[in-house]
Design goal:
alpha/beta; eight-stranded mixed sheet; globular
């Protein structure tokens, strides 16, 4: 009897330990974070775009949660990527150009390093984009261009060329094959596409297999394409040195150029979408899809001819809104949910950490999005956010700050003390600046005060 009791106790102790182990394993999912460069919010089938072909991202949205009001807090590559990694506004992480690196202390509080500390295998492929001395040796797998913009074409040993999107795909799949069965992993995948290839003029090099895609499509001109919308800008903004205007001329100055440029931009997005499909297929073939969270986001929006501009930087909706999809296979009940609340790039880090069961460092300013994935109503969710862009300055890129909600937008060009106020509910294309409208004076004053509050609060 004593022997039976001892065996019974031993069994229950073993079973309890096994249950705990399995529970911990289930609570420690793999995480894949996919970041496209300059992917604007509406260049997505799931967002209602009837022309672009993004079947794999659309499937991700059907099976996951799409945040239709997702924004970046600074619309430029290096700053946005630093915000994504750190969960912080630029004012706090202080990465405000292309050469600054995270300090060792700041790097330790990024989501990859926090997951490494928690026992995850971590990998990074594609465009790291923060500083000129990236932390290659801190990762278990690293296939990145360490400085500057990657090229679009690489030469193979046999002399043939391979597109950057395809090299990113090869590296991402290689990481999954190597680490998919070695405990929890976090893979960050960062595409160059659909970013332009810088040059004079800039170009959008696409893979040959997509070269004729959209050939017969008719891309509608933007609501704010006409010359009158460029003329509405203040004199300091209308400088011929404004980078957004410089790049507009060879790419959007005529309706024909607009057609060609947008089609190539869409082709690059479809190339990224193809990689999303390949990754998910591999996860399924390795039988790890059910415990792998996939998150997709753009690092900036992008003006495709709107307001007489090409590019990001400024506070227009086309520039600051991005696609964001979070797919957690464990949250089937919210599949296909579309969230209207504001989500930000600074929310990625705390979201990834909560999903992995890791603590969120107090220095992070973003909010976890996990409540939305499990249909729990979050308390005191934000109704607006702070926007800041300080890189370069006038005349090439006038510096901006502001407060943005889904209904109103306040933008101030800080070097010139020039204000813009838009009623996004009535004027979603930002055609009419209400900053000097007497009827909007109270709203303007309230948003000025809100902006002043944020300037102090986000540091």
């Amino acid at each position: 009897m004593k022997r039976f009791s001892l065996l019974t106790v031993c069994y229950f102790v073993w079973a309890l330990g096994a249950h705990t182990l399995f529970a911990q394993s289930a609570a420690r999912p793999n995480v894949i974070f996919l970041l496209a460069d300059d992917h604007r919010h509406d260049a997505l089938g799931a967002a209602g775009n009837p022309i672009i072909q993004t079947p794999h991202l659309d499937r991700l949205a059907r099976e996951g949660v799409r945040f239709k009001n997702a924004y970046v807090t600074t619309s430029i590559c290096s700053v946005s990527r630093a915000s994504i990694l750190s969960g912080q506004y630029q004012s706090r992480h202080q990465i405000d150009d292309f050469s600054k690196n995270f300090s060792p202390e700041a790097l330790a509080n990024t989501y990859p390093m926090q997951l490494k500390k928690a026992g995850y295998k971590i990998g990074f492929v594609g465009k790291y984009g923060v500083g000129d001395n990236p932390p290659e040796n801190e990762f278990d797998y690293w296939k990145c261009v360490n400085r500057g913009q990657p090229p679009y074409w690489y030469k193979r040993p046999d002399g043939s060329l391979i597109h950057d999107t395809d090299t990113v795909a090869h590296s991402a799949l290689d990481f999954i094959r190597k680490f998919g069965d070695k405990g929890p992993f976090c893979l960050s995948v960062s595409f160059k596409a659909p970013h332009e290839l810088d040059g004079n003029p800039p170009t959008y090099p696409v893979q040959e297999r997509f070269a004729s895609l959209y050939e017969n499509a008719q891309i509608p001109l933007p609501e704010t394409y006409g010359a009158e919308y460029w003329e509405k800008h203040p004199a300091f903004f209308k400088s011929e040195e404004n980078i957004g205007r410089v790049r507009w001329k060879p790419l959007f100055a005529t309706p024909e150029l607009h057609q060609e440029t947008v089609k190539n931009y869409y082709r690059l997005v479809t190339g990224v979408d193809e990689v999303v499909g390949k990754i998910r297929t591999l996860l399924e073939s390795m039988d790890i899809a059910d415990n792998t969270i996939v998150i997709y986001m753009g690092d900036n929006g992008f003006c495709l001819g709107e307001h007489g501009l090409q590019g990001k930087w400024f506070g227009f909706e086309e520039s600051v809104r991005v696609p964001l999809i979070v797919y957690d296979p464990r949250a089937a009940r919210t599949a296909g949910k579309v969230v209207s609340e504001i989500a930000l790039n600074i929310d990625i880090a705390p979201t990834v950490l909560e999903l992995s069961g890791s603590p969120v460092p107090p220095v992070m300013q973003g909010k976890s999005l996990v409540s939305f994935l499990y249909d729990r109503k979050p308390k005191d969710w934000r109704t607006d956010f702070f926007y800041e862009h300080t890189f370069m300055g006038s005349p090439r890129l006038p510096r901006t700050g502001g407060v943005i909600s889904t209904d109103w937008k306040y933008i101030v060009y800080t070097e010139h003390n020039y204000e813009e106020l838009y009623d996004l509910h009535k004027d979603p294309y930002e055609k009419t600046n209400l900053a000097r409208d007497r009827k909007s004076a109270k709203k303007l004053e309230n948003l000025r005060k809100r902006y002043e509050h944020y300037v102090k609060a986000v540091r």
